[in-house]
Amino acid sequence: MDLHFSGTDLACFRGGRMVFRGLSFNLRPGGALLLKGPNGSGKSTLLRIMAGLLQPIAGQLAWHDSSVADEPESHFQRLHYVGHHDAVKPVLTVAENVAFWAALRDHHARLDPALDAFDIRHLKDVPGRFLSAGQKRRVNLARILAAPVPLWLLDEPTTALDIATVARFERVLAEHRATGGMVVASTHTALGLDDAVTLNLDEFQAEADFDDGLY
Amino acid sequence: MTAFIEIVRRDLRLAMRQGMDSLMVVMFFVLAVVLFPFGVGPEPNVLARISAGVIWVAALLASMLSLERLFQADFDDGSLELLIMQPMALELTVAAKVAAHWLTTGLPLIVAAPLLAVLMNMDGGGFLVLVLALAIGTPALSLIGAIGAALILGARRGGVLLSLLILPLYVPVLIFGVSAVDAALNGFSWRAHLLILGGLLVGVLPLSLWAAAAALRQALRS
Predict the structure, then answer these.
(1) What is the nearest CA distance from B79 to chain A, expressed in angstroms?
(2) Cβ proximity of A154 and A186 under 8 Å
(3) Other CB atoms closer than 10 Å to residue A153's CB: what's the count?
(4) Does A211 have pLDDT greater than 90?
(5) What domains can be seen in chain A, in order of their start residue?
(6) Which of A68, A75, B55, B159 would bridge with A61, disulfide CB 3.0–4.6 Å?
(7) Which candidate in B21, B82, B86, B221 is best for mutational testing of the A interface (most A CBs within 10 A)?
């Protein structure tokens, strides 16, 4: 009766080409999945499919045996997604930015610990427009920490982060997994995720003749 | 419900901090109406006769002015995809955004309207109905506008496209909004016109929330 998040035989067709097909994965509590592959191999697309923003043209996503496509809203409830944009409003302060996203999920208590975890508590009252790219990314990461959910989908989360913050972030990830959380991350740089399963998207590229067979 | 209120609060706060947006809508409204006495001449009777129509058309254009930004800012900085991934119906999120938009643009228009009615030499008997009609009509304008604002996401020159999409849909609201005021000015019963306007609002509410939410999902898929 173990909880798990899995994808079976996923395929994605975008922009007139098959991005990947036949992709399967299985993630258990405390597990981590590291997405690798060259630019354009579909890492971001796969993360967006996992988040329910995109639909795969084939295959099935499941959370503990119930299909994600059937209940998109309860899937949203259990995931945080970090994409390429940081969603930091320039006129809101750091605290307001983080508090807004946390409040949407009914959590209030964890604001300060979340800011501490990424060392941005001293920026609490600074409006978003004065933040650097790395600081904005930290605000975005503090957001996912402020409202605990089991599944984190991270699309190149370490972009613009300095080395010290990457180390902090690795500790946060380890803590999240120690409490039964799951992590899916795509990255080009080294990210310390102990015994993470690596999924190389290059292996799931569709053959050139696939389109002819399908249509 | 908490999430609904949180989104409204955030959008109101954003509007307050960058206060020019609301102010500009009201300024546009006032200026557009003020242009008419220059254009048609300062003949009091003529102005009084066209006052209801002029104020309504100006209100309609003014409320459209700010629609382009309704989802665009959130779309650009990635907030929109996070809003979509909240565990509540996207239609409710859209409703919250529209409510905040109406509070920051529609409400100021209603407040400014009686002032402009004086300027246009409108008979005092029409003031109450004008305010009532705007109070029912402007939420409908914001709602219809949300469909257009969601459809233009990702398009170039979205503002022009938006007006082409939305202005034809505004026509029913305009017709009954103006006819309610005209009825009051001419001593007829204005109740039926306001009821139809209310009916339009009630019909547009679920339809536009549903359509705008569908357009947003589509925008994030491409």
Answers:
(1) 5
(2) yes
(3) 27
(4) no
(5) 30-52+72-214 (3.40.50.300)
(6) A68
(7) B82
